UniProtKB/TrEMBL annotation:
Coiled coil: none annotated. It comes from Candidatus Desulfacyla euxinica. PROSITE patterns: PROKAR_LIPOPROTEIN, TPR. InterPro entries: TPR-like_helical_dom_sf, TPR_rpt. Signal peptide: none annotated. Keywords: TPR repeat. This is Tetratricopeptide repeat protein. It comes from the Bacteria. TPR repeats lie at residues 148-181.
Length: 197
């Protein structure tokens, strides 16, 4: 009888210890939250990925989320400006680009804002559009030399203006810089063919 009581006591002790272990293991202790996904940088990055795929509504949502977290986040203003340009809302697009330029925290951000203007003028067209693009191109290089985005979108503008030799030179400059838009520039050069030589 004593042996059975001892055996039962041991089993109950083991069960109690296991229960206590699982209780503490599953308890919700406060942990440091990772806020990586809810940052202006993350939302803007997601916005640009969605913009590349043509999902304007979703991209706009991401850029607006970035601006809710930081109302002076230059990259988000730039993204919204590009969306407004694609929607042919050029007054809103220019206002967003001005915010991107004015809120730029780095020289590169300022240069990219001028590239945003280049892209808007290329989208809009109209009288003197190529001169406006070229002026913003030089503005961007003033803040950051060897900016692949500046040369790439200058090449796109020259291509639209049917100045294929100049477009080819700008796409080749992107390849020379070799810091981004390389694959896109190779594709553009391929599409230009022999006329870019």
């Amino acid at each position: 009888m004593e042996f059975i009581k001892l055996k039962l006591f041991c089993r109950m002790t083991v069960v109690s210890l296991l229960f206590t272990f699982f209780l503490f293991a599953c308890s919700s202790t406060p942990r440091v939250q990772e806020r990586v996904l809810n940052t202006p940088e993350h939302h803007a990055y997601s916005g640009y990925k969605l913009l590349e795929k043509g999902y304007l509504f979703d991209a706009k949502r991401e850029f607006n989320l970035a601006l809710r977290l930081d109302s002076k986040y230059s990259s988000a203003h730039l993204g919204l400006g590009l969306i407004y340009g694609k929607e042919e809302k050029f007054k809103l697009a220019v206002d967003s680009m001005l915010s991107a330029r004015d809120d730029a925290k780095t020289e590169e951000d300022k240069a990219l804002a001028f590239v945003g203007f280049m892209r808007l003028y290329t989208m809009k067209g109209g009288e003197g559009w190529l001169d406006k693009v070229r002026d913003r191109f030089y503005d961007s290089l003033h803040y950051k030399e060897d900016l692949p985005e500046a040369y790439y979108y200058m090449g796109i503008a020259y291509k639209k203006a049917n100045r294929l030799y100049r477009a080819g030179n700008d796409f080749k400059k992107v390849l020379e810089i070799n810091k981004g838009l390389v694959a896109e520039s190779k594709e553009e050069l391929k599409s230009l063919g022999k006329s870019a030589k």
